Amino acid sequence: MQGGLFVIEREKLALYGGQPVRDCRKDARPVISQEAKEEVMAVLSKGTLAQFYGGTQVRAFESEYAAWFGRSYAVAVSSGTAALHVMYLAARLPERSEVLIPANAYVSVLSALLQAHLIPVIVDLDPQSWAMDPEDCRRKITSRTSAIVAVHMYGQPCPMTELAQIAEAHDLTLLEDCGQSHGALWARRKTGTFGRAAAFSLCCRKHIALGEGGILITDDEELAATARSLAHKGKGEGWFDYREMGFSYNMTEVQAALGRHQLRRLDSELERRQRLARWVQEQVAETGLSFPLVPAGSTHAYFKLNALVPPELAPYRNEIVDALQAENVGCDPSHPHLLDIDWIREQRPYFFRTLPPEERPSYGPEIAPVARDLLRRQIGIEVGPGLDEEDLSYTVAAIRKVMAYFRAAYGATGRKP
């Protein structure tokens, strides 16, 4: 034994020809009830699949979604990226102003800023919570800063009390990307209710999964009206009322009907993910994996159970993920540090070339070093929809097996024996 784990021979890993812990992989997929299927079929039979500004199902979904969060308005759109785009534009942030985003944000957070002619400034992560670091936010604020976007990656809430205080002290707009954090709490308050507005993704394996879709919520009536207009070609209520350049970001009636049913089971989906994530963490406590600190009074929503491999195994992170996948369980590498994406680091989009040299952001290798260390070691363990205790027991067995081998083989020196 080593470090409480039995040493595993290389040949026992499925990646190298051994028998996997599970015969075939079960993917996380949305749970679609019979009632939801019948409602979708009713929409198809009716024939009204979409309407400008939202049909009956879209408006009902928006109302119910806003109510779940205790917000006044919701605007449903075609994707999470579309929700971010119209949120940035509807917030009326000054063009070419700087917006602070964390280094671990999903790429859409940044690309939507560029679409809105805003300058992304990359902020580091807290080494304990792996969320946006308020101290680095303070360091990155300049006379050109207009907003902070708190991105609750993997469902881990950002420190919203402190970020709200920073935004207020510097007269900045606070926005939230809750694409992976439906129902997560910060200080017993739901993420998505701290900023002027919040954007959500409703795709794939999200807590509310429509295949594709997005929605934003706000208490700001003017922002909501502007976002709705932007999502519907920039039009007002009149046929010839074209107010500004807009986009075709409509949500369909089918998506909304499905979303209403998904929303009704959101509480149970959150409970399932949190219960399973806690159990997995307990079961793999001796494997060398570490998990983010979740402060008292706050909750992680667990889009995925994010974990770190030990520092000495950082060079083998991708191989560890490959080995877990070969065991037929769900695991992925972390999304990269934003500045490890070539087109961002090299500032290839045309918008960057329109900026004078003194306004171009610094995207050098020294930016957000804590995030760089964390993200090269981070993995995402699947706890998504449709998985149960039996499924996660295979995940636990795979983690124990794979980590036992890698810690024995490479743990002492970080080099192959």
From TrEMBL:
It comes from the Bacteria. The keyword Cell membrane does not apply. Pfam families: DegT_DnrJ_EryC1. The active site is at K206. Keywords: Aminotransferase, Pyridoxal phosphate, Transferase. The keyword Transferase applies. GO terms for biological process: polysaccharide biosynthetic process. The modification N6-(pyridoxal phosphate)lysine is found at K206. One of its GO terms (molecular function) is transaminase activity. Belongs to the DegT/DnrJ/EryC1 family. This is Aminotransferase DegT. It comes from Thermogemmatispora aurantia. The lineage of its organism: Bacteria, Bacillati, Chloroflexota, Ktedonobacteria, Thermogemmatisporales.
